[in-house]
Amino acid sequence: MLETDVLVAGAGPAGLLLAAELALAGVRTTIVERHPERPPYCRGFNLNSRALDLLARRGLADGLVAEGHRVPHAPVTGLPGPLLLDGAATDHPFSLGIPQTRVEEVLEARAQELGAEILRGHELLSFTQDDSGVTTSLHNGLTVRARYLAGCDGGRSTVRKQAGIGFPGVAARWFALLADVECELPYGPSAGPDGRTVFVIPRPGYVRIVVREDEPPADKDTPVTLELVQAQVDAVLGRHVPLRAPRWLSRFGDAARLASSYRSGRVLLAGDAAHIHPPAGAIGVNVALDDAFNLGWKLAATVRGTAPAGLLDTYHAERHAAGARILANTRAQVAVEEAGDEPWADLLRRVAAHPAGNRALAEIITGLDARYETGEHPWLGRLAPDVPLTVSGRPTHLAALLHAGRPVLVDLAGAFGGWSGEVEVVAASSGLDIGGVLLRPDGHVAWVTEGTDDTGLAEAVRRWVGDAPVPASA
Ligand SMILES: Cc1cc2nc3c(=O)[nH]c(=O)nc-3n(C[C@H](O)[C@H](O)[C@H](O)COP(=O)(O)OP(=O)(O)OC[C@H]3O[C@@H](n4cnc5c(N)ncnc54)[C@H](O)[C@@H]3O)c2cc1C
């Protein structure tokens, strides 16, 4: 029997980032991935501003940004113009064109460097949980005993089903065929005689064709063939346009479902295992990373025994609510696309055409509006901006203080140096009207003051970090 602290099922973006976060905190972590190697096709091709902001809190964004292609707006479906990110609440006011497979490679290398074990060609079949852990059976007869199991195993999650976690939502009303091929169609939509379209998306060395099926298939799992896509493309366009050199053929629909709970005892869900939604706004990878980043430090603290009571449950509280918003946002984009000249859709289009409305929609659709608690100070509950700082006489920036994945109390007033314990206190200076800020390991603000008043700091430390740290004078 293999023993580990956390068993992660699935080496997609969620599983890989979660494993890296756990390993960073010194937690023994094993990933089991059913595929012997990463599939040759690539699903997603973008990281949004929110995901880049989060990855920057571990020093992972700059390398990806250097490799990718910047686009100054957020992907959106159904609105006529782009959602511009200029002036949005982000340190990365652009979307990054980069293959999902490349992001996975970077995360996998990091997880392994930090000590996580990745077992490819290992499929999780079933598990049982008891008071002290989870015993998991794999397809090859291997048994893994772990203190926690994280289901990052995609939309058809075995972990979610075996845990008995409901997946309520709406079934797909339509399906579209996807084909990564070579063909002579121009990029963008090509309309046929009756107005139906074939959409062509440029990809490196090939194109991605997307065309809706006329009727939902009798069995959505029937393999898609080149002949099927070819026939549908020709039928929609009313002429024959040859599709060549197929790399990947698939089908997707507009189903939207959200796990009824992101936690069941010692079992947690993240990424597509917890939510599926229409493919609007190119958001799936980004939400998967957001979930993993939120869960990682909380689960690590729980495994290490330093977590305050209830910390792990805040994962469901924060990310289930975020998941519900993602479902609403993506369904709304599809609804606008299908709404024609409905008055409400016209209103939304005019909101999007207004500069302030455009920016607000960009922030909402990319998840930049994430705020886990509200309060008077605008920073509270939000991801703290990556402001320039001076620490020990040297220039640095706020995100760099989080690279170690620990909670940090940034003391900008020289007033909080006596705090100790799990919280690292960093004396810094900046041009900001901030006296001190307590950052969770994911960079969200747990407490902030503009002066030297530490009211609420002890409570915030108890709530997010644990009981141990106290001011030296206490
Ligand atoms: C055509 C298409 C285009 C997309 N484009 C974009 C885009 O541009 N931007 C974007 O953000 N998102 C996009 N997405 C969505 C994105 O690909 C997913 O949301 C994202 O991969 C979810 O990550 P995940 O880690 O939760 O799950 P996955 O990436 O699905 O990873 C789950 C992993 O678990 C493994 N697994 C499953 N069951 C088991 C088991 N029982 N045991 C062990 N391993 C198991 C799987 O093999 C897989 O590797 C697209 C999706 C599709 C289909």
Automatic annotation (TrEMBL):
InterPro entries for the chain: FAD-bd (IPR002938), FAD/NAD-bd_sf (IPR036188), RIFMO-like (IPR050641)
- Span-the-membrane segments of this chain are none
* Cofactors named for this entry: FAD
- For the keyword Lipid biosynthesis, the answer is no
One Pfam family it belongs to: FAD_binding_3
Q: Which UniProt keywords apply?
A: FAD, Flavoprotein
Ranges for domain FAD-binding: 3-329
Q: Where is the signal peptide?
A: none
Q: Is the Kinase keyword given for this protein? A: no
Among PANTHER family, the record links this protein to: BINDING MONOOXYGENASE, PUTATIVE (JCVI)-RELATED, TRK SYSTEM POTASSIUM UPTAKE PROTEIN
What's the protein here called? FAD-binding protein
Listed GO MF terms:
FAD binding; oxidoreductase activity, acting on paired donors, with incorporation or reduction of molecular oxygen, NAD(P)H as one donor, and incorporation of one atom of oxygen
UniProt source species: Amycolatopsis eburnea
